Amino acid sequence: MHIGVIGGGQLGQMLGLAGVAMGHRFTFLDPAMEPPAASVGRHLRAEFDDAEALERLAVECDLVTLEFENVPQASAERIAARNCLMPNPQALAVAQDRVEEKQFFEGLGLSVAPWVQVDSVRDIVQGVAHLGGASILKTRRFGYDGKGQVRLADPAHAAHEGGPGNPGEAASAWEALAGAPAVLEKLQHFEREVSIVAVRGRNGEARVYPLVTNEHRHGILWQTTAHTGDPLQADAERAARLVMEKLDYVGVLAIEFFVVDGRLVINEMAPRVHNSGHWSLGGARTSQFENHIRAVIGWPLGETDPIGEVAMLNLVGTLPDPAAVLAVPGTQWHDYGKTPRPGRKLGHVTVTAPDRTALESRLDRLRAVIR
Ligand code: ADP
Ligand code: MG
């Protein structure tokens, strides 16, 4: 099959690697000069709203999927009118807008952090007072890796700086986001952050990977650890299945949660393969990339079990010496071929071990090499 992919970053590259191995070929639509996925397929260089390029992608490919969720809605609909776009434009619309997304989750009975919609400084001032405690302002659209977010102090503690709902702080937060439509969320004092990667096929068959624990640094995913038997597995799995059913979703979907008082609070979803699922490449019987390709083609889905204890470390900003990484047993090296830049995800390392003690010691050795 000839698979069209909107976006040509490292996620596209890894989708391509998995798909080429199964006999498929790819065209990636991406405005960048030489995106990572160009190494594994044809690169259609155009903006995501270029009508002619979208038309070509839809007509020349057997089906179209994506690795980047901020595809303009008009572009998604243009493709869906000519060919099969998976996931569908409705699922994308929900995932692209934090207000739609939260309302969708609430409609399914899933708990989200208390939030208010923000369209002005006044909304922030009132929202801070209404939510109580520290909060976090996020743009409704286009946020990733902690970008498009500003934290606001607990008004009770910030009283000396202007009183509850400190208007100065609200105004500067609003300015920091350039007045973009936003949501204000109550800051969650979570015990940990977890996510679940799930996949649904064209016939509605669904499979779910183990719930994983994520640690972030500066808003960017730093480490994912996958263990089977997380006590919250069943709850996360139920949420994922519910979301996929409701959206008539096809492909891989990821959902991020906070664990607060031992319970799941849903944060956001990504309608695509996800960084917190990279461990599955080499760490599970079938990677999220292979399963996404199988799902969109209509092939049976693969087993999602981990092959042992697994962790994934992101390589952000600079790359360590691959030889030093690979000297640690059970490791795999992934380099996306991107130009190094501070805060940029350049690659990742997966490490597997037969038990948790061995995993911890391998992680200690890796941490001495990976900054
Ligand atoms: P992004 O789209 O950038 O991934 P997120 O909403 O996932 O946006 O926020 C990035 C990170 O910021 C989260 O993984 C979490 O560590 C922190 N964060 C976001 N919202 C909250 C919140 N309400 N309470 C506490 N931490 C939060
Ligand atoms: Mg996130």
3D architecture notes:
The longest helix has 15 residues, at 233-247. The chain is built from twelve helices and 18 strands. It has helices at residues 10-21, 51-60, 73-82, 89-96, 98-107, 121-131, 167-176, 233-247, 280-283, 288-297, 322-326, 356-367; strands at 2-6, 25-29, 42-44, 63-66, 85-86, 115-118, 135-139, 149-152, 182-186, 192-200, 206-208, 212-217, 220-226, 251-260, 263-270, 309-316, 331-335, 345-353. Helix 1 crosses helix 10 (288-297) and helix 6 (121-131) crosses helix 7 (167-176). The protein has three domains: 2-86, Rossmann fold (3-Layer(aba) Sandwich), CATH 3.40.50; 114-186, ATP-grasp fold, A domain (Dna Ligase, domain 1); 192-367, D-amino Acid Aminotransferase, Chain A, domain 1, CATH 3.30.470.20. The mean pLDDT is 95. The chain is 32% helix and 27% strand. The relative contact order is 0.12. The strands form three sheets. Strands 10, 11, 12, 13, 14, 15, 16, 17 and 18 form a nine-stranded antiparallel sheet that branches. A five-stranded parallel sheet has the order 3-2-1-4-5, with helices on both faces. A four-stranded antiparallel sheet has the order 6-9-7-8, with helices on one face. It has 371 residues and is an alpha+beta fold. The protein is globular. Bound molecules: adenosine-5'-diphosphate and magnesium ion. Magnesium ion binds next to loops.
